[in-house]
Amino acid sequence: MAARPSVNVFSDQGEVSTSVPMPAVLKAPIRPDLVQFVHTNMAKNKRQPYAVSTKAGHQTSAESWGTGRAVARIPRVRGGGTHRSGQAAYGNMCRGGRMFAPTRVWRRWTRKSNLTQRRFACASALAASSLPALVMARGHRIDNIAEVPLVVSDSIESITKTSAAVAFLKRVNAFQDIERVKSSRKLRTGKGQLRNRRYVPRRGPLIVYNADNGIV
């Protein structure tokens, strides 16, 4: 947890104006195990149910030959005149057969999480963002920033132009992390490329504000 009792408040010009006590939420214990557990459970609530067709693997006429033929007793396709006749069917070990334990849409897709655990995980994640070692270990460029967390005056909540926001971030030496994000766009692997999720950028700085006076 963060040990500093107070943090400096910087003006919109990047100068120290005052100091405020460190919020209690940023002093919460760091629990990566709890954060991962809660995140995994909550991520499962966004899954879309899927299942194979109930007819899959059974859309053929097959019957076992019984015993005495020196072949397995698995059902076999009827008829003749084609390679398919006599082939095993239906079983999960068969070519063209159904899978074992076919998936159903009534599977228990979602998970419940304790409210106290969700709150603890949120507080723990915020507290981790106030430790420079953990922030830098994640790849953020904060070498030139005065301190972490970087607290600034409420006047920046009135910024409405992107150019003004960029100028402010440069004044407080926080724009280096933005440039890291800009140059980090990579092509996503897998089917997400075809589903409007083609590129994956890195995450930039977390900005916490009190009132939206034009900054959003």
Automatic annotation (TrEMBL):
It comes from the Eukaryota. InterPro entries: Ribosomal_uL4, Ribosomal_uL4_dom_sf, Ribosomal_uL4_euk/arch. Signal peptide: none annotated. The keyword Ribosomal protein applies. GO terms for cellular component: ribonucleoprotein complex; ribosome. It holds the Pfam family Ribosomal_L4. GO terms for biological process: translation. One of its GO terms (molecular function) is structural constituent of ribosome. Keywords: Ribonucleoprotein, Ribosomal protein. Belongs to the universal ribosomal protein uL4 family. This is 60S ribosomal protein L4-like protein. The lineage of its organism: Eukaryota, Metazoa, Placozoa.
